[in-house]
Structure formats: structure tokens, C-alpha cells
Specification:
- It is a single chain.
- By secondary structure, the protein is α/β, with parallel strands linked by helices.
- It is built from 15 helices and 15 strands.
- A nine-stranded mixed β-sheet has the order 7-8-6-5-4-3-2-1-9, sandwiched between helices.
- It is globular and about 60 Å long.
- The two termini are 33 Å apart.
């Protein structure tokens, strides 16, 4: 039986860098974008794929992939199909899009290319909050794009939202949630703002919600989305029945994935590697992948066990004790007994039917809990 393989395509371009963003992204002229796509296609063509894999998901992330011409996305998809002919018929194929960069023509091309899932970056339904974030669109533009995508036939749409914004109240966050839920998307990703070093936000004095307000926003998210039929299946992700993001779930269960493009990461067998973040180096060497890859040491058994724990605990279903023993040949209590007992006694980890998962309180301090599983 063939193993599942996920593909990630990094498109680093955006119209304008948002004030909170620390992703590998930047504005670029059309000529640079075309040159980059040519090199990305060359990188895809050079990959030497083992025959025992079948592609289950494809994800265009960024940056803002929808800044590219639709024809460029079509070319990339054609290159993928030529190099990876064994793609599941029901493969989930996602593209991240920002309102203000979508057109009817682009959406029609995406559909022809086989893309069947859109991820729309809204962040907030409040115009002042959008302006503060440095977004290029309005809430009305987002709605127009959402309805346009529906008319064209996209039946699987995610909306990205962000809470704990400067000046944001619990009431305005709840309004954003309800506005979006009323549109009936299939999936919502709701993240709390993190101030990252090197971003414009990091150099400003911001009026951020306090810890209590942030806690209340997070709990309101789960409550309101539950009212609208969403299941929380991961710390920041909520889906209608059968609409979990299969690509992201693949990351959390440590499925093999290949990343193509500037700075893209891969987990292939026991190998971890990432492409260079140097654009000049990438453009000059994409035909020879070994020159653009920055390899990490092979994963040890301890590394794999730690990843199994801290990635698996991101999901609300947590991790299976039996699966741990099957993968690593040791009982989980023999490896992590002390850590598990510590957090169970604090009420931050729970165990039920052979699965270990974060409690509601545990989710709020998940980073601290997960850090204890690191080697």
C-alpha cells in the first residue's frame, strides 16, 4: 500500500507586508514573479520521487499566492501533475487568497487547475481593525470575493480570523465571528495575535487586550462556532463535519510532506530539510535541489517521539497511547510518565479511552505543556 505524501508550494509574494507578519513574504514586480514561477517549476521537475507514494493534499501558501496571474498557478499545477502522476482523485488542493487580489477569471482558472479549497484571509470584519493590521482589503471586498467563489462553485472555503488585536474588544471579536458564520464557510481558522520580533507591530506601543480579555475571546470563539455547527479539532481550527483541513492534519500526525519554493520545509522519511531563504540563491540553483536545500541532522528516535507528542497534542482528540507504542515500541508511560503525571495532576492533560489530550485550561497554556516533551 502506498504511503500518503503532501505537497506544499511557497509563493512568497504579497501586495504589501502586513504590520504583524513575520512570514517569508514581500512585494515583487511581475517579472520577478514570473522568473520565480519558472524556477519553482524547475525545482518540481528535478525531484526524484520514490514510487511508493501517492499525493493526498496540495497546498499553495505564502505570502499571497493569489497575487500571481491565474495562468501561473495553472502552470505550477501542470508541472505537479507531470512529476507526480499518482494524485488521489479526492485530493484536497488548497490555495491561500487575500481579498483584493481575486478576480472571477482567477477563480475560474483555479477550478480548471483542480483546486477545490480556498483559504481566504479576512482577519477581521471591523474596518478600523483591518486598517490597523495593514490589510489591503475591506470587509465588503471580502464578502464580494466569498460570494463570487460560491457562484463559481467552490464548496470548501476556509476563512482566517485573528483575535486579541490592538484596541479590539470582546464585543467586536464576537461580531466578527457571527458575521463570518452567517456566510456559512466550511472551515474557520481563528488565531490570537502574536507580536513577532522584527515586525512593525514590535516597534510600536500597542493597546492590546489584557490576559482576561484574550482568554474570554478564545472561549467565546469555541462557544459561538459550536452554535453554528463547527467542531474545534485543533487549538486554532474549527470545521463543519467532514471539512477538517486534511493538509494541516497531515502535519500534526507527521505525515511525509515535500515543500517547494523559497524557504519551504520538508519531512521525507526521517529527513528534514528546508530550502534557502535567499532569493538570489534560489533563482540561480532551483535546477539543482541539493544546492538550495539546507539539511538538518536525521531525526533521532527521541526527536520523533517528541514531535509525536507536541504536534499530536495540538489536536483536540490528542494522541493515542496504542499508536505511540506501535510506532516506537515502548509504552508512553515508560518515556513520558513523569511529564504526563505532572500535567494530569494539574488538570491540564486528560486521558480517556486510551487517548491523552489537553483540557480546556491546558489549551490556554499549551506552549508550556508541549515544551516539556522536548528532548
Amino acid at each position: 500500500m502506498k504511503k500518503e505524501l503532501e505537497l506544499y508550494l511557497h509563493i512568497p509574494f504579497c501586495v504589501r507586508k502586513c504590520a504583524y507578519c513575520d512570514f517569508l513574504s514581500f512585494p515583487a514586480e511581475k517579472e520577478i514573479q514570473k522568473q520565480y514561477v519558472n524556477c519553482l517549476i524547475e525545482e518540481i521537475r528535478q525531484f526524484d520521487l520514490a514510487e511508493d507514494y501517492v499525493v493526498s493534499t496540495i497546498f499553495f501558501g505564502g505570502g499571497t499566492p493569489s497575487v500571481l496571474e491565474g495562468s501561473e498557478i495553472m502552470r505550477i499545477m501542470q508541472a505537479i501533475r507531470e512529476r507526480f502522476p499518482d494524485i488521489r482523485e479526492d485530493a484536497e488542493i488548497t490555495i491561500e487568497c487575500n481579498p483584493g487580489t481575486l478576480t472571477e477569471e482567477k477563480l475560474q482558472i483555479y477550478q480548471k487547475a483542480g483546486i477545490n479549497r480556498l483559504s481566504l484571509g479576512l482577519q477581521s470584519a471591523d474596518q478600523e481593525e483591518l486598517k490597523l493590521l495593514g490589510r489591503i482589503h475591506t470587509y465588503n471586498q471580502f464578502k464580494e470575493n466569498f460570494y463570487l467563489a460560491r457562484r463559481i462553485g467552490f464548496a470548501n472555503i476556509n476563512v482566517d480570523l485573528m483575535s486579541a488585536l490592538p484596541g479590539q474588544s470582546e464585543e467586536s471579536w464576537q461580531e466578527t465571528l457571527r458575521f463570518v458564520c452567517d456566510l456559512e464557510p466550511e472551515h474557520i481558522s481563528a488565531y490570537s495575535l502574536i507580536i513577532e520580533e522584527g515586525t512593525p507591530f514590535a516597534s510600536r506601543t500597542l493597546n492590546l487586550p489584557d490576559e482576561d480579555a484574550e482568554y474570554n475571546m478564545y472561549e467565546a470563539t469555541a462557544q459561538i462556532l459550536r452554535e453554528y455547527g463547527f467542531e474545534q479539532y485543533e487549538i486554532s481550527n474549527y470545521a463543519k463535519k467532514g471539512r477538517k483541513c486534511r493538509h494541516n492534519v497531515g502535519y500534526w500526525i507527521r505525515q511525509d510532506y515535500l515543500g517547494f519554493g523559497l524557504g519551504a520545509s520538508s519531512l521525507y522519511g526521517k529527513e528534514r530539510f528546508a530550502n534557502t531563504q535567499d532569493m538570489k540563491k534560489y533563482l540561480e540553483n532551483s535546477r539543482t535541489p541539493e544546492k538550495i536545500r539546507e539539511k538538518e541532522p536525521p531525526l533521532t528516535r527521541e526527536d520523533e517521539m517528541a514531535e509525536f507528542m507536541f504536534l499530536g497534542l495540538r489536536m483536540t482528540r490528542g494522541i493515542s497511547k496504542a499508536e505511540f507504542e506501535w510506532q516506537f515500541g515502548s509504552e508512553i508511560d515508560a518515556i513520558y510518565g513523569d511529564v504526563l503525571r505532572k500535567y494530569k495532576s494539574m488538570g491540564l492533560l486528560l486521558e480517556e479511552n486510551g487517548r491523552i489530550f489537553l483540557s480546556r485550561e491546558g489549551i490556554h497554556v499549551s506552549n508550556s505543556v508541549m515544551a516539556d516533551f522536548l528532548p
